[in-house]
Specification:
It contains twelve helices and eight strands. The protein is of the alpha+beta class.
């Protein structure tokens, strides 16, 4: 009984870290939760007498479970997860201005390469993804990772290096695209607040649609001109967007689809359940916007 109590305490102590490992490995909140539960089922039946580093041991168990799940997923391509948010959500959408960001928020901003990164991670072989995530994100030595995937430390290092090159290329491309989109969204919000109909037209695709009922650039521009006074530029799960908050809680997210340098679609989401799953970072107004104000 004492051993089980000790194990339960160690698992609870490291559970947040284990969930983060599983999420980075699998890219799915629900699958990460399943992986951690499966890991607990395994370790609760294990002999812990020889365990000297509980955190490392538990991480290894979770990694093995995730590896099995990724390999099973690759055999069922129709179940591919696709792009998902950078971090597991909390009980409600987190909203934090950049100026007040803490270490976790800064990590989110630095690592929020969005859809492109998650898509590239999903194309990596399970062993490549495991080697990259465990070493680069969680600083697990290559020797320990190699024991999980049955590779030598040198071979594991090569796996991680190859995966890193692919991800870095995607991150650079995604960062460039995201920066351009952020400028377009910021310009749209400024034009909407100022009621600048012609500026809105310049930013909209001729066949743009908005909120499910406005079609064509003129109709969309007419609807938004003079509106969005309370909307603020933000990153919603790493993607440039606009948000409206009340007492620090996200009440609406305005998402933009941009193609060819113009906005083709604007969607407004007010569903509480979906909004609670978002991680929102409110961005400061651009220098140009501050000058206009």
């Amino acid at each position: 009984m004492a051993e089980q109590d000790w194990l339960s305490a160690r698992f609870a102590e490291h559970q947040k870290h284990l969930q983060a490992v599983a999420y980075r490995m699998l890219g799915s909140r629900s699958e990460a939760e399943d992986a951690v539960q499966e890991a607990w089922a395994r370790v609760s039946r294990a002999d812990t007498g020889q365990v000297e580093n509980p955190g490392g041991w538990l991480t290894t168990v979770v990694a093995r479970v995730c590896l099995n799940m990724m390999e099973a997923r690759r055999s069922r391509p129709e179940d591919a997860i696709g792009a998902l948010p950078p971090e597991p959500g909390t009980a409600r959408a987190r909203v934090h201005p950049v100026g007040q960001a803490g270490p976790e928020d800064e990590a989110l901003l630095a690592d929020s390469v969005g859809v492109a990164l998650m898509v590239v991670l999903d194309t990596l072989a399970p062993a490549e993804r495991l080697a990259l995530v465990l070493h680069d994100v969680f600083a697990v030595p290559f020797g320990e990772i190699g024991s999980i995937i049955d590779r030598s430390p040198a071979a594991t290092r090569q796996l991680a290096s190859r995966a890193r090159r692919r991800v870095q290329g995607a991150a650079e491309a995604s960062g460039t695209a995201r920066s351009a989109k952020q400028e377009i969204v910021a310009a749209f919000l400024a034009a909407a607040r100022g009621g600048d109909f012609h500026a809105l037209l310049d930013l909209l695709d001729p066949d743009a649609v908005a909120v499910g009922e406005f079609r064509g650039a003129e109709a969309v521009a007419s609807f938004f001109a003079g509106r969005a006074q309370a909307a603020r530029l933000a990153l919603a799960d790493g993607e440039p967007a606009a948000v409206w908050t009340h007492h620090g809680v996200v009440k609406a997210v305005i998402a933009f689809t941009v193609q060819g340098g113009r906005i083709t679609r604007i969607a407004v989401d007010t569903d509480p359940d979906r909004l609670r799953a978002l991680d929102v970072v409110v961005l400061p107004p651009s220098r140009k916007t501050r000058d206009e104000q």
